[in-house]
Amino acid sequence: MFSNKTEFKEVFLQRLEMTCGKSFKESSKRDRYQTLGNMIREYVSSNWIKTNEKYRSAKEKQVYYLSIEFLLGKLLRHNLLNLGVDQVVQEGLSELGINLDDLEEVEADAALGNGGLGRLAACFLDSLACLNLPGHGCGIRYKHGLFEQKIVDGYQVELPEQWLRNGHVWEVRKADLSIEVPFWGKVETLEKDGRLTFRHVDAETITAVPYDVPVVGYNTDTVNTLRLWSAEPSPYLVHKDIMKYKRETEAVSDFLYPDDTHDEGKILRLKQQYFLVSASIRSIIRAYRKQFNRIEDLHEHVGIHINDTHPVLAIPELMRVLLDEENLGWEEAWHITTQTISYTNHTTLAEALEKWPIRIFQPLLPRIYMIVNEINERFCQQLWQKYPGEWNRIENMAIIAHDQVKMAHLAIVGSHSVNGVAEIHTEILKKREMNSFYQLYPEKFNNKTNGITHRRWLLKSNPKLTNLICEGIGDSWISKPDQLLELEGYQDDPAFLDQLFMVKQENKIKLAARIKEQTGINVDITSIFDIQVKRLHAYKRQLLNILHIMYLYNRIKEDSSFTMYPRTFIFGAKASPGYYYAKKIIKLINSVADKVNNDPVVRGQIRVVFLENYRVSLAEEIFPAADVSEQISTASKEASGTGNMKFMMNGALTVGTLDGANIEIKEMVGDDNIFIFGLTAEEVLDYYQNGGYRSFEYYHHDKRIRTVVDQLTNGFFEDVEDEFEMISDSLIMENDQYFVLRDFASYIDVQKEVGLKYKDQNQWLKMSLLNISRSGHFSSDRTIQQYADDIWNIRPVNKRPLTKN
Ligand code: NTF
């Protein structure tokens, strides 16, 4: 039905009438979107079935990526592109007077994630399918994704997100594959044939209902599965207060925790984690059991990856299944479990290290707690053998200590691989954060630098640049992104560089229109688009960026002869609702924007824009239009970053610290094609360890700093007098934990250099082209191939090219 547009049109019209019960003329955009979505999903389903059959018959090892977040965004366009039917559909619709872009607007973002960690999971799913690797996702089908952000009077206001309001065309509910997940109750111990057996009784069970979403590969017939679990009241449970039970049950998959790094410490969060893990593990084992006889070989055929510690209960849950249901002995179960599980760490921020008080953990998950306790006892005995008498070391490494369960320790002990997400991050884990574990298990630790799918972040989001690249070097880079390197042949080709310039201008025009629509602000598309989009967090230092803008403002105001290349500073960021300081920074950005945008003196030179509700679909409009990418975290704090890679791939130049993957970007492009400033990670960590930083001295000695810091509290922002005291205090009274003032001068210098370099358009375009050409390394195809080879030991199964049906 997609082989030519006439056939497509015919089927589309027929289906539209059948499913909506309306004539074409009467149908709404939503009807049309829904019809198209359903057609695509059905088109995919025969390959979906075939892929699963092939995985079963090939008896190849399969991997399950467990993640509490999958930040998918929209799927329609992405699926059309991967299926290779984008063109046919677009043309067919257009003949019916329908614009595909308009239909895409109707689709809600699937925002089942907060930021980097969840988006990485989505990129990984795409790469797995594209590389024909047998790898699937397991997550939670939150009824409400990440909150919707509104800016009211400069303040962030949160509204519940409603992506399921009109249903989700991509999912298939599979109620017959539901699983009962038990909570509370107690454990009964029985002796059977001289062996102790355990039974979880009096439990309150919740039904986990799977919704499967097909994950379509590019130019292949592989269709993997993302299985999202929804919590529903169990039909088997008799409860004395049925309404309460229903409420509490559904709460488990109601909301995604809008929290990037802080652990809320709530029972509900732990319930969500066990819910995901128990349903996933048991459905994995059920599928395995249909295919294989020997449970002892599980790790030969199944890999289970845990995305950060949120799904770490996979370890005791798998142990429980092997011990209590499969009747294996401890040693054997432990061997299988550790060989099956692998773990990625995504942050070293102390606030993000999950710890659960026993008083919460034990009653909620009594059998799981027993198992964790046993794992801990055995682990401590092993430590005692190796480090006799070293009480301190053992206490620090224990999984349970001070009435808490330490999830990261459980993850390291119970898995065969522990990886960080950029070289420097892995080194910091090995040398510092997890050093004692590294000494014990050096062989477990490895690095896998993050990547992004170039299919969404270039092909889909930047079709103009994609076309230009294809005109230059053909299209085989789409399957082998390293071939983007061939673009370097065009470095001295003025006609090609001109076209590159035009593409950027056109993308800037589009973004300018979006800015106008959302904020009413007119921006100059010949100005430098200097962009910082990511979650709002103190360590990411949006504050450094906005204070620098205040400095430029002051500079222009005090010296009429001062000129700079005009710049539009664009921000997009959500703050966790309970993160008061981050919300203050949002207010500050908006206050500066008001001040700057309404002052005729600076108008031609700086503009400041805060785009509300930053999300995947908005990001797709932003990256293609960027000239400058702000990656300015305090060195050592950003584990990797992935926005940095998306900007680079779209030809923006990075202004960044030597942090996370910025370092590897710099190694790729060379010192002349990136703007590096600020303290190194070594220097930052040295300050933390040995002291010696006094922010007051930087305030005192640098008038530029003094002025902007004073402006936070001296009435400079007329309408909001005490608003920013907290920010000023963080910089001076609290000694500026994130070294904003320490890096300020160096940031001013590097930003000045950016302005000068941009003036030489030809040089800038060359640098931009070089960034694009070297970005292939940061495709998640490279990352996933490394996971497949080094950690999971899986191979491609489904090599046949797409069968058109
Ligand atoms: C994030 N971590 C890191 O902060 C980013 O640097 C990294 O790029 C992504 O993970 C993906 O690896 C988190 O989102 C979390 F939840 F761990 F804080």
TrEMBL record:
PROSITE patterns: PHOSPHORYLASE. Signal peptide: none annotated. Gene3D superfamilies: Glycogen Phosphorylase B. Keywords: Carbohydrate metabolism, Glycosyltransferase, Pyridoxal phosphate, Transferase. Its EC number is 2.4.1.1. It comes from the Bacteria. CDD domains: GT35_Glycogen_Phosphorylase. The keyword Transferase applies. Its cofactor is pyridoxal 5'-phosphate. Transmembrane segments: none annotated. InterPro entries: Glycg_phsphrylas (IPR011833), Glyco_trans_35 (IPR000811), Pyridoxal_P_attach_site (IPR035090). One of its GO terms (molecular function) is 1,4-alpha-oligoglucan phosphorylase activity. It catalyses: [(1->4)-alpha-D-glucosyl](n) + phosphate = [(1->4)-alpha-D-glucosyl](n-1) + alpha-D-glucose 1-phosphate. Belongs to the glycogen phosphorylase family. Phosphorylase is an important allosteric enzyme in carbohydrate metabolism. Enzymes from different sources differ in their regulatory mechanisms and in their natural substrates. However, all known phosphorylases share catalytic and structural properties. This is Alpha-1,4 glucan phosphorylase. The lineage of its organism: Bacteria, Bacillati, Bacillota, Bacilli, Bacillales.
